[in-house]
## 1
Amino acid sequence: MKRLLVGLGLLAWACAARADVETNAAPSVTYGVTAYRASTQTLTNATLTYMLFDADGNDRYGMHDLTSCSAQTPDSCSKLTAPVAGWYNGSCSILFAAQATAAGVRSVYMTVNAASTAAMSIPMTASYNNATVPVAVSRNVYLNKGDFITCLVLQSSGGNLNTTAATDGNDADASASLVFIGP
């Protein structure tokens, strides 16, 4: 009898998870995605630039779309989109490439719907020659169904500077994540 009840409970959970996506009800599953940059991205000096995430890991709910990429507009590959309304933890983490002469500041911004800045990193100063500079930001945000976060980066090295490439969604080199945490 106990096994039958457990089996019925799992079936009910699976049905509820599908209904959540279709009705925008409070989810009974955890939605989440990690997107990452599999190749370097060149950042122009003193120019706020959208990070373009050209790969994703385990995107079962269509939260990251790889169909369009442009560094100056929040196209699909720079967005992580909420499939249902609720609270999410959004994060952006970038590893700026090393340069021979340390100079300038590195910053990361996370926006909601490409309009308001939800979070900004503490600007990091490149203080060592030939050293990479890691910068990250994370914040809980309330998103409606269809709302999205984007990650923007800014560097002031005096010339173009690359990000480093991530090898998978577990690297923090150039990645972003969006994870549902509650209704």
## 2
Amino acid sequence: MKERVIEKIIPIIEYRTQIITDVKISRPDKTQTILAKALWDTGTTYSSITNRVAEVLSLTEVRKVKTLNTTGEHEENSYSAILHLEELSWSCEYDMIPSNAFIEGQNHNVLIGMDIISTGNFSLVRISENQLLFKFSF
């Protein structure tokens, strides 16, 4: 079976280097899909979406999950949504947590956490003084 790969060259910007890719998010019944920008975050356990994405897609709560961040332990609503990584011809339904942790003005509205990253092969390789090669594959 041929390996499916996302590859992207990431500029190294002091203190602000980010891996951001285009994704699609759908309702579980696939009646509505939106384009989104996803930040790949190895320090995040659960993938999450902005509250606005949950509102636009009219997602409904499927369960409560306990989360832990710098302000302590919290119980959050979890919403089922389908994440599409078109470059990989891959999509999967995940429980996503709408989060208030997104900072206004950031250029992403989805966090891809270790719940998704750990399902594939994730790598970063420095290819020059100011560039990284990001790869994610199955």
## 3
Amino acid sequence: MRRLYLLSTILMVQVATLQLLGGVLPGRYFDLMASELDRLESSSTLLNSPSVMLAAAVLYVHQHPDNDFFGDEKMLDMALQVGDYVADESLKDPEEDRQHYEWEIHCWLDSYRLLEARLTHERRNHWRRALEQNVRWFEAEVDARIEFPRFQGPFIRTSTNHLAIFASTVYLAGRILRNQSWEDLGTRAMHRLASEEQSVDGRYSQVRSVDHLPVRAAGTSDHQPVHA
């Protein structure tokens, strides 16, 4: 009974918090993105961050009463400027190992998705070529491990959370770049993460702080059309 009471209290607090935030979201997100972009506009770090590209793209394409930057050409120019820079630098990158792209490539992919219809043919092909070059590395990493008996360190020679990010990258790239083999491979790996790889206590690793990464990656596979 005590546990039930505690659970009920937690749920009521969560509902009240969501109701409170409902009055300020997503407007607060738009404000935060815009203020951060304004701060970074004159900074040299602006040109090396796909997260900046995504923020500018979201502000440009998302029509909402609280978004004052919808259709703002300045946001579009910023997103395109960053996208061109990131693509150029990626194609010049001599490293065969592309793991250093794992944390922000999702921002890059989503920016491509949001802006694809507004890209020139030349720019679209340039961005796509750079993205595909990186995703092929992630594809190889997932494909090499897909038949391993467990998605855990002793078997896969990396951590479960890294493999989850690799798989979700391949899946998302397959959806956005319309590559069915990538989508199928990513789906297969994330299905294992969601349905087979958790321990009996619901964990993926001995480090609880990184357990959210496989869960988040598996959640990427929502099976909803990304081009709708």
